[in-house]
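A quick aside before the break. I want you to see a complete sequence-to-structure record at least once, exactly as it would be stored in a machine-readable document. Don't worry about memorizing anything.
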Amino acid sequence: LPVLSGKEIIAAVDSNPVFHGRNFRGARIGIPSTLLGCDPKVPILVASYNSAIEVTSAIRKMGLTNRIVTL
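That is the input. The structure line, written in tokens, reads:
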């Protein structure tokens, strides 16, 4: 993804267990609750175009206040 060029990936998460344990640009993919330990100053990229609204809603329901970037 060009939007990620030169950016450090701190964490990668997915609600689908099929992806857990795999790597995305050097970050191991974990469960969504992994984001609970994230610095609120770090933006969260929602890389799912089709589910962006649902994912953004789930992030907010977790109580996270990070800036959310969508594709």
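Two observations worth writing down. The chain has a mean pLDDT of 90. The radius of gyration is 12 Å. We'll return to this after the break.
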